[in-house]
């Protein structure tokens, strides 16, 4: 039987993506993503937040750096990867990351107008009432938002 390594997260960016270029001009973006769940404990609502390290490569990294900002709500699909490295003191450390394969920007259409002003002639009242999802995959290289 084959195995499955699939992660689906919906959360808010903890900071703007950090875009770096590696050897061969390969781009990589990384950022923390917060997911929260609420549950009842002793009759009181308690919110628990989990932080995830997100990594995006190549075209997806470029799109993320252009459109994602701190606080933005996103849907991310990817896979778990654990890697090791040596810190400055020579101690072997391990980190677990989500390598994103695609993402959707979630929110109201008006949320996107700050990023892309080409839709500014639309009626703002209508835009604020409409929910919007913008989908990006590793193969996307188009600069425009697909709505």
Automatic annotation (TrEMBL):
Pfam families: SSB. Keywords: DNA-binding. HAMAP family: SSB. Signal peptide: none annotated. NCBIfam families: ssb. Residues 110-147 are annotated as: Disordered. Homotetramer. It comes from Sphingobacterium litopenaei. Residues 114-127 have a biased composition (Low complexity). One of its GO terms (molecular function) is DNA binding. PANTHER family: SINGLE-STRANDED DNA-BINDING PROTEIN, SINGLE-STRANDED DNA-BINDING PROTEIN, MITOCHONDRIAL. This is Single-stranded DNA-binding protein. Residues 137-147 have a biased composition (Acidic residues).
